[in-house]
Amino acid sequence: MLAACAFQPAHAEGAKAPAKSTPSKPTVAEAERFLNDTEAKLEKLNLDGARAQWVAQNFITDDTEALATYFGERQLSAAGEAALGARRYNGLKLKEDYARKLKLLQLTLMLSDPKEREAYAAKNAALNGAYGKAKYCPTGGQECLPLGELEKTLATSRDPAKLKEVWLGWHAQSPSYKQMYTDYVTLSNKGAREMGFADTGALWRSQYDMPPEAFSAEMERMWQQVKPLYDSLHTYTRYKLRAAYGPDVVPASGPIPAHLFGNMWSQSWENIYPLLKPASNASSFDLTKVLEERKTDAKQMTQYAERFYTSLGMQKLPESFWQRSLLTKPRDRDVVCHASAWTMDGKEDVRIKMCIRPTDEEFKVIHHELGHIYYDLAYNKQSFLFQGGANDGFHEAIGDTVALSITPDYLKKVGLMDQEPEANADIGELLQRALAKVAFLPFAYSVDKWRWDVYAGKTQPADYDKTWWQLREQYMGVSRPAPIAAGGFDAGAKYHVAADVPYARYFLAHMLQFQFHRALCREAGYTGPLHRCSVYGNQKAGAKLQQMLAMGASKPWPEALKAATGEDRIDGSALLDYFAPLKTWLDDQNRQLAAAEAAKK
Ligand code: X8Z
Ligand code: ZN
Fold it and tell me: 6 C-alpha vs ligand 2 centroid, how far in Å?
């Protein structure tokens, strides 16, 4: 991967493997030397690559794209060379750390043809740029609208015609880079196969300390575990959307049109909470309103998040973070606004790039991003190949875990809520949380189900949209607001598809964050309902978290999970625990709403 949401070092330049004709047998000493040399050579190359990508995403121009391509090709070349070199030592009995490093080095693409490497890197950079630059230009000469503006309309407008226009406007942009994406998939698969993987999807599924088939089965197991909760939420949401938009817009059964959920990808439904909120037992508190009224700026938003982490006993962000991060959308140039966290040198040079707006949703996202940053800082004493998450789902889960502690109590403590949290507002709180976390689950699952099939060649480019919507209908129960158009590329309207960032990680993170939250609350001595727990200011919980973060990727992830939670499986049970009161309430509401509807007939 050249680009990642949490920018982590590509496993880079390795010492040259001895020529194939080397007669001597590989030895343990030689393997250790190879691994040490390989790691030692990584830093400079990685720093150059990170800088080129940072600049390319902060200033989208032809020149920065060319520079990102140049350094991307070098990283790819080095990673491939290291992976090939590592093979020579596969049969040896090495010390645990070395054996793990040897394995990690080989979980990469390898394109032996320099032209193909360059083409791969070029397409990766160009796809990032194309997504970052995309805008919807309505007919009639109005101003072109960047994604952020379209998202704002989807979040706040309740006019179905307007919502549909904006939805279709954005989804009309991605077909322009569909061909580039399909060519990229071909190259990527070639690289995966050169390393002995069936395809790139299999390579991705091989990164979880288990065989790729076992990982697919785990994903399905977890989905089945949480599906009944999703179904209850979907049913309730349908009733409320029908009440808001009428039966002509929202059908009584079958999938619900995707433009009505307050989000471009229907992946989080929290923006339609006002339409869904319970008649009683709901708070009237609106964090977005408070942030807007107080003109909370991007730096202050970030400082709220920083304060949470320091309250857990973690360090203050380095001065360079504030100097080098991009926190607001620049007025006069194109940037990749999709939020990301970067570690440049594997030490203290950490940054985020995010076009922060003062909303409740973004308040959580900034905590998410700092989760990546504090993970990066925690493992920066590990050697290079271990500077990563226990798996990529862990990396995505840390900031979200912390954000689960943004409770009314917490908001009151930091002065964002004046009133005492209202009594009996729990169901409203839980519903709001579920609209973000539970609604997300089948989305996250279907994105990579789609990609696994694309990479496996089961889905051909002509069928991209067909299978994308089959999966969305089947798992999410949402449908395209208008018929599929020939040559369309709706999947490419999602950042992670265009930028080729794997997505199963977010599904895992949505299980893990509840497991971590439950464990940290326990560590803090908390015994009440999980949704009311905030570990803000609890250094004992902080130390527990920090201990896991500091392990980085040095051990198989079940060990890291065990250190933090005592559990060794990623599992939906903590999530189900957390939402248990809501599940009961939703099922009860759904019964009542069904009875009321039946009585009308
Ligand atoms: O991409 C992100 C983060 C950066 S890693 C903002 N997320 C996923 C998304 O936006 O689709 C966070 C949750 C899901
Ligand atoms: Zn992230």
Answer: 6
Convert 8-38 to b/e letters by CB count within 10 Å (16 or more is b). bbbbbbbbebeeeeeeeebeeebbbebbebb
At position 256, the amino acid (one-letter code) is I
Model pLDDT, residue 16: 38
Residue 395 assigned to a binding site: no
Q: Is 374 marked as binding a ligand?
A: no
Q: Which residue, 388, 316, 309, 348, is CA-closest to 551?
A: 388
Of 259, 496, 510, 531, the catalytic one is: 496
* pLDDT of 446 over the 80 cut: yes
Residue 192: what residue type?
Answer: A
Conformational region of residue 88, where left means phi above 0, alpha means psi within -120 to 50, and beta covers everything else? alpha
Strand duo 256-257 + 6-7: pairing: unpaired
Q: Report residue 10's pLDDT band, with 50, 70 and 90 as the boundaries.
A: very low
369 is catalytic: yes
Average pLDDT over residues 228-239: 98
Residue 379's CB: how many other CB atoms inside 10 A?
23
Residue whose CA lies nearest to ligand 1 atom number 5:
5
Active site residue 293: no
For the residues 568-573, what does the mean pLDDT come to? Answer: 97
Residue 9 has pLDDT above 70, yes or no: no
Q: Using CB atoms within 10 A of its CB, is residue 600 exposed (0-12), middle (13-18) or buried (19+)?
A: exposed
Distance CA 487, CA 501 (A): 23
**Alpha carbons 403 and 108: distance in angstroms, whole number:** 32
Structural tokens at position 543: 């130390």
Token look-up 């265009």 returns 498
Cα–Cα distance for residue pair 13/38, rounded to 1 Å = 6
pLDDT band at 66; cut points 50, 70, 90: very high
**Whole-angstrom distance, CA of residue 326 vs CA of residue 510:** 27
Flag whether pLDDT at 2 surpasses 50: no
Provide the token pair at 143: 């101003």
Q: Is a pLDDT exceeding 50 seen at residue 14?
A: no
Encode burial over 46-82: b for 16+ CB neighbours within 10 A, e otherwise.
Answer: bbbbbbbbbebbbebeeebbebbbbbbbbbbbbbbbb
Cβ(236)–Cβ(276) below 8 Å: yes
317 DSSP assignment: P
Q: What is the DSSP letter of 384?
A: G
pLDDT (tens digit per residue) in 328-345: 999 999 999 999 999 999
Query: Which residues form ligand 1's pocket by a CB distance below 6 Å?
Result: 5-6, 339-340, 365, 368, 506
pLDDT tens digit sequence for 180-203: 999 999 999 999 999 999 999 999
pTM: 0.96
Is 517 annotated in a binding site? The answer is no
| Measured distance CA(507)–CA(476) in Å, rounded | 14
- Specify the length of the chain in residues: 601
Q: How far apart are CA 203 and CA 195, in angstroms?
A: 9
Helix or strand or coil: residue 227? Answer: helix
How crowded is residue 566: how many other Cβ atoms within 10 Å of its Cβ?
A: 10
Kindly state the average pLDDT of the residues 282-306. 96
Q: Are 90 and 31 in contact (CB under 8 A)?
A: no
